[in-house]
User: Fold these one by one.
Assistant:
Number 1:
Amino acid sequence: MEPILAVKNLSMNFGGLRALDRLDLDVNQGEIVALIGPNGAGKTTFFNCITGIYTPTEGDILITPPRNSVQRINGLKPNTITELGMARTFQNIRLFPKMTVLENVMIGRHCRLSAGILGAVFQGKKVRKEEERAVTDSYAVLEKIGLAQFVNDLAMNLPYGAQRRLEIARALATEPFLLLLDEPAAGMNPQETQELNELIVRIRDTEKISILLIEHDMKLVMSLSDRIFVMDYGKKIAQGAPREIKSNPVVIKAYLGEEFHA
Amino acid sequence: MILSEEIKKSLLAAVWFMFLTFPIMVIRVNTVQNIVEWRWKNMLLVGIAGFFGSFLGRSFFRQKEKGEKKADPNTISVAALVQKITGNQRLSRLALAVIAGFVISFPFAFSLYQINIMISALIYVMLGLGLNIVVGLAGLLDLGYVAFYAVGAYAYALLNHHFGIGFWTALPIGAVIGAFFGILLGYPVLRLRGDYLAIVTMGFGEIIRLILENWNAFSRGPSGIAHIPRPALFGWEMSLEMSTKYIYFLMIGMVLFTIFVVNRLQHSRIGRAWIALREDEIACQAMGIDKAKTKLTAFALGATWAGMGGVIFAAKTTFINPASFTIWESVIILCIVVLGGMGSIVGVVSGALVLILLPEYLRAFSEYRMLVFGVILVVMMIFRPGGIIPDVRRTYQFRKEEH
């Protein structure tokens, strides 16, 4: 079976700086894949390339959405890529601070709705139905993520952990087949991290959504992921199951450090 | 101890103010007699005013800081009142009835002069609501909004002059031309944000004005276009008074229509996309919103109202020239939106009424208009940065789901 995301030979240059150097990566249906590496290794650049925020210099990004054929998505606009079914969260939280929690999720529904200007003004039966559906659907997503209690609060007033989860909820609302999480556990306490771990597994198992995540919390990465890719200086230095990565001398030297091994 | 400290600070502020205002308040050159007058009395007055001003100002600040710490209920009274009225169905009906009664009886109870002032205030309400789409909702700082207003006004004036097109035909044409120009401006500025966008839009506004001023063959230059007909009503000949009242009610209708449309847009899929764009452009795009399309619709819809406002303005004054469309107009409209409350319809309406009606009724202070304007803006930005009546997000009720 085709991998749902196959990145081949991806390079990204910023002027003379090569941020990504002939990177290969693939994610299969139903997998949780982690991307790790030291700060500045190019992980977030990689995310920005495959979500359309940057246009890569070289290489191919191929996706195979369920019930669809292979598609090359290099250079497509971010909103088109989201519409195709890849949704992401951000390393530094990027919610819409002055909108309510529900509205944040409803923005995620945006690309699955169709009302235009005239529809919004005249509010015919179809538009009103669609709007009601959007509200109930968004609320359902919030319930799933466990944020229903905050539904009418402004996003900026949420506690930190809840803001992180709201980003995931917003991404889920776009109905992705692949969810890209950029350091979802950053700044979380151990209990919140534990909850996040359960949440990610639940998303994969019940929603049938594959997950690609960048993370520095090694405990979380090792317990969560099926496969791990390790990057350093824009290059892939290793890939494999958590057990292999843990004992890979190159990875230990570049990233994990000796004490982790102990 | 604290008091003496305060007095010392205030004295310092007073001296500083006396020094600052010395050239304009004290020295006056009498060009008739060729002598310099020294008005030392003014300096004393400035000193006293500075002293008490700074004393009161600082105690006010201290109060505000205290108030912020325990969320003083008095400081949000206006917003709370509006909330209370709109929240309670009987109260809101009563308020609506009172407003409707006032609006309908206004032209019959007041003089022609008052009605004319009210009409221009209503035009600004419409312009404010239009700019509110661009600035308040979509967060695109547009300093050239008056260009679309000018486009609408000249569209009616020129179409009427050359082809004899009447007001009612010109109104939708003005709207369409306004929207077209909105998109025309929107395309090149798609990638710009914040201050850069403000500069480019400001330039656009000036370009339109300069074209109108200098292209004599097209727009008759600075002398403008006269004899623009007032709106017609089934070919009925109206006296000046009748026609003014007619325009008044027409304007009330237009404002209601604007409020209706903007309100619906605001709470729709499009409106949410605008707000998301304002809040975070990158996240908005990553969530599947087409940035270019959303920006262009905001520019086009904002300009539509300016176009229609322009047509009505031309019909009301029967004479237009480029001097009516200077950057100052853009700034006033922007002030209406910011002072009233970005994104809030009630806020923008009250902002327009306050900013346009106050100067008219405070003619006695017209020399100090700019000064008062500046002071109001500074004070507002310190004490109510959200505007007179800030935007309140809609909330939804859900019943508790059973598990």
Number 2:
Amino acid sequence: MAEKKTITVALAGQPNVGKSTVFNLLTGLSQHVGNWPGKTVERKKGTYSHNGIVVHIVDLPGTYSLTANSAEELIARDYIIKDQPDVVVAVIDASAMERNLYLVAELLPLPSPVILALNMIDVAEQQGIQIEPEVLEAALGIPVVPMVATRNQGIRQLVETIDEMVQDGTAYEPKRPEIRDDHRAVLEEIQDLIVSRVPDPYRVSWVSLKLLEGDDEIMRLMEDCLPEDIWERVHAILMEHEDAIVAVASGRYNWIGRMTRAALVRPGVGQITLTERLDRWATHPFWGLVILAGILGLVFSVTYTVGAPLQDLLSTHVVEASARLVSAALIGGPGWLTGLLIDGIIGGVGTVLTFIPILLIFFASMGLLEDMGYMARAGYVMDRFMHLMGLHGKSFLPLFLGFGCNVPAVMGTRVIESRRGQLLTIMLAPLVPCTARMVVLAFITPLFFGAAAPLVAWGLVGLSLVVLAISGVLMNKVAFGGERAAFIMELPLYHVPNWRTIGLLVWQRSLSFFKRAGTVILVMSVVLWGLSILPTGKIETSYLARIGQFLAPLGALMGLSWRMMVALLTSFIAKENSIASLGILFRAGEEAGLAEILPGILTPAAALSFLVVQMLFIPCVATVATMFHEANSWKWTLFSVAFLLVVSFGAGIAVYQVAALIG
Amino acid sequence: MLPLIPTDTELGLIRLGALQKGATGIVHDIQAGRGLVSRLSVLGFTPEARVTMVQNFGHGPVIVSIRDTRIALGRGEAAKVRIRRLNGQR
């Protein structure tokens, strides 16, 4: 009997090639999503068993190449070089084979054997591209598996091929790309200089090539490893051949051309594809915006019309019901215990729980748009506006996710290549009104503004976005010196959505939200409950009240009493907490009670300033924690908090004073 | 006398951003720093590659098609790629 064997397979591929679909097919639900050590780049791992072999799959980040242009590329190549997986499966899009094989050209010189998963052959066929996998296999000297991952085709053969490659003892001898003739001499010169001085596990030929490509990481490595005089000679050669980056890249493309010549037949005249037809509208500077506005409007109305009633249902039937159950069970028990359980724990967990429907619907809509390929178009259309803030189109998607929840928005900034672009987007994300803020808006506006309530609500959302734009322009000028990163983005082909992929995306996003937000909100709810009850047991004389009274002079400028200030402070835990806190502070039994009390206490001017501050206030604690995690800097996190405090109070004061003047 | 550097016009070169919708050009070079050159050449913007303008409204970003892929480029990035017009096209 075969012994129980464990192997590791790395999945590599460029973005938008269906790599996640292949990963999901191979691993099913037995996957684990985490981060690469020390990096905010997602790492997915999973396992399957076949023929008594346990196969660990590591999904490498999607990258166009293995030159250290980004953290993702560095991670992908470091993993292959240092962890040396038993097999690397390179997933490529058969309809854009030339560009996709670029990554393969970089994978072949590395020690791990490569299997080519030729995905999306159905798309290639639709475009009239004919591919002969056997010919390609012979040309490259590696196994080629044709696949249509979205239709579950070819996955069995891929598993068999991995199996054969591991069992088979024969040497792995692929055809490896070579450098363009005009640079061969330089490459050899560098090789001779550094030979025997390259640290393990790197290979001399590979390091020499990366030096020629101007790879920062390898330059630093060799500067440290080489004696000074030799490094100076190497460096002089590199300076003299700065055009080598292009020579190496075009050398790879020439090689790809030779490898695919026999295996690939393209249609003579480019036919007009569905993508082209759709893009005439979707990327048009005017109609594109109209379409984007329409789609976003639809996403919002679906999210709120379907999500809000579900939220109410959960709130009454699960949260309030369990609160009643607990208080009934604890009759006669100590009052603090009831308080801790109901106000602290059930309140905290309930908050998170009632957000599930809205977040799920919102994430599913976003996932659908992303999977179909539309999101890149939205980024493209918005590029000219993002431009004004020194950002580019890629920042649009994370900011838009912020309408659901600021936490995934901040996490989503990972897609932005430049550090300054990412930081700026993180700084701006809290100004996107999230669902929780919308809940507060929807509760308070009808109480004060009657028929004009929707107008006021939309006005406040508009105000947030205007403040976001102005802050973006200012921060870019002042803090980032007005630079702007290059905007280069692939527009993938549109395709029929894959429900499995979307489902897993929603699942992972929600899970990471609940893991992060859930625990933080729970802990902070308990802390807040403690502050509201200590030391006297009554909220009016609690620490929380003292803090509110301390802030009363500031509140007076905005027409807000200390109670309103406390409500604002509690929104730091979760935005919609401010309603619950007002309920407690004004001794209203339930929301209906509060709805009757509030208009008698607040003038419309004060209500408006309360809402303005609420919209622009520091984000909830879960968002702040995520900001710190993603920005990886206390300085920027504190800057953001301070900035938002100033902006929100400033705007609140201005609005109250003006509104009070007008009456 | 200083050696004269031939101008783009003398060489028959234009910037990618000046290529009209539907027209095809041949990449000549990329006049930019190492980082941008590296990112663009990886995506297939290498000398002699054919690039077709898919969308160009004269302002804002452009969409080009290169090596079977549609790529959106900022106007600034498109201005750094020098191309030759393909014969018979404007």
